[in-house]
UniProtKB/TrEMBL annotation:
Domain of life: Eukaryota
Protein species of origin: Merluccius polli (Benguela hake)
InterPro entries xrefs: Hect_E3_ubiquitin_ligase (IPR035983)
Recorded GO MF terms: ubiquitin-protein transferase activity
Protein name, per record: G2/M phase-specific E3 ubiquitin-protein ligase
SUPFAM superfamilies reported for this sequence: Hect, E3 ligase catalytic domain (SSF56204)
Amino acid sequence: MDTLDGYREGFHRHWGDPTREFLTLLMRAILASRFFVGPDDSKHLSLDSIGLNRGTYVIIGKMIAICLVHGGVGPYVFSERLLCQLTGEPAPPVDVMEIDDEDLKSQILKASYK
């Protein structure tokens, strides 16, 4: 069990046991994948139609749940919008600047100024 001072059953939180180390590496790999985009402190989901059709997003969700439940390693980098959508809370107003695809963003900005 984690304590407030960052120790877990005799191990320092950053060293941890092999399971925690594996789950930390898994979470890093998930957040670095093409399924998450945005700055390091505000990640949101990208749209990958192949991944959507193959059920990859469901698998990623299950992997994140395993990391949370078994290792205490959380994805503390989700954007406010993604976190609200996951928890069922009202999301903040949409901002065009959140769009990572530069072509799509420029098309929307051009259309909004007409």
